[in-house]
Design goal:
100 residues, YaeB-like fold, 2 helices
Length: 100
């Protein structure tokens, strides 16, 4: 299990169970383990997710965006739900953007 800190300073856990869920459903994600962790710590955007989740987004190639869905349970705990690559992201759902 690895722990990184979100932009809100909340520790976010990537457990072995969640990692297996990600790669079993999306085998191409196996190469992105470290990128998932860095996406949480240093995203380009944070999107509003469903049911209180947040989505960290990081550009990984031209028109390819890593999405990491996670939940902050409180100030001291959070966890990764899933992760995937998409061709776009929903700009209307942005709630935080990296300062450029």
């Amino acid at each position: 299990m690895d722990v990184v800190y979100s932009v809100n300073g909340v520790p976010i856990r990537l457990t072995e169970e969640r990692w297996q869920h990600i790669v079993n459903n999306k085998p191409y994600m196996e190469a992105y383990y470290d990128r998932i962790l860095s996406c949480i710590e240093k995203p380009t955007w944070i999107l509003h997710g469903y049911a209180g989740s947040l989505i960290a987004v990081l550009s990984v190639a031209k028109q390819r965006y890593l999405h990491v869905v996670y939940k902050e349970i409180g100030r001291n705990d959070g966890f990764v739900i899933t992760a995937f690559i998409a061709k776009k992201y929903n700009r209307k759902m942005i709630i935080w953007a990296q300062n450029t």
